[in-house]
Amino acid sequence: MNPNTSPGELNKRIALQIPSKVPDGMGGFVVTWVDTATVWAAIWPISAAETIEAGKMGMTVTHRIRIRYRSVLRPSWRIAFGGRYFNIVSIIDPNTAHRWLDILCKEAA
Fold this sequence. Notes:
This protein is an all-beta fold.
């Protein structure tokens, strides 16, 4: 992937979401997701693997998502795009230039 991405390649609108704990009324909490920012991104699928969990076939798809640099992004956040959700695995600042972030993700089922 070219570290010199042009802004025109960021052609997908994604939402960066943070987890929020909401009391469930029984002494526990339920995690809900709150949009914290909507940004332009480029999304590339990297790989896919079939898995079997609890006797059911599943698919793990990994993606690389590139956005403009944001110092606040954390691995505990997730990304929403068109009804799909991506759990953040790793955040990379190519060449530590603070221009782009490459986010390695696993698509949530």
